[in-house]
Amino acid sequence: MSPQEVNQSLQIVNLKGKIFKCSKGGVWEMKNCCGLYHPSLGYFAFEGETPYTPSGGRKSLEAIMKAGGFTDFDNAIWLKECGVN
Predict the structure, then answer these.
(1) Distance, CA of 73 to CA of 85 (rounded, Å)
(2) What are the residue ranges spanned by the domains of the chain?
């Protein structure tokens, strides 16, 4: 998939209550923040175990998307939500 194709499918989503597994065991529950989600790849992250959540929140993500998104996804990590109850 080209970067343009990935960018076209990215959605800004509310991450509140989403749960992700930690590599050292346990889980991480997201607080009130927004991130980027791709329907087939998952939640966008640069590194770590939680999705990318810029300090500017939704406005920062909207600005990124309005500018055309990311130029490449070479360093991207795609996370899947953990199904913990």
Answers:
(1) 31
(2) 3-79
- Residue among 34, 39, 37, 48 at smallest CA distance from 77: 48
* Coil vs helix vs strand at 14: strand
Token output for 27: 């889980």
What is the C-alpha to C-alpha distance for residues 2 and 70, in angstroms, rounded to an integer? Answer: 11
- This prediction has a pTM of 0.89
Q: What is the pLDDT of residue 15?
A: 95
8 Å CB contact between 49 and 21: yes
Q: How far apart are CA 8 and CA 83, in angstroms?
A: 27
Show the CA angle centred on residue 54, arms to residues 13 and 22, nearest 5°: 75
Give the Cα-Cα-Cα angle 81, 48, 30 (nearest 5 degrees): 45
- Whether the per-residue pLDDT at 84 is higher than 60: the answer is no
Q: How far is CA 53 from the centre of its chain?
A: 7
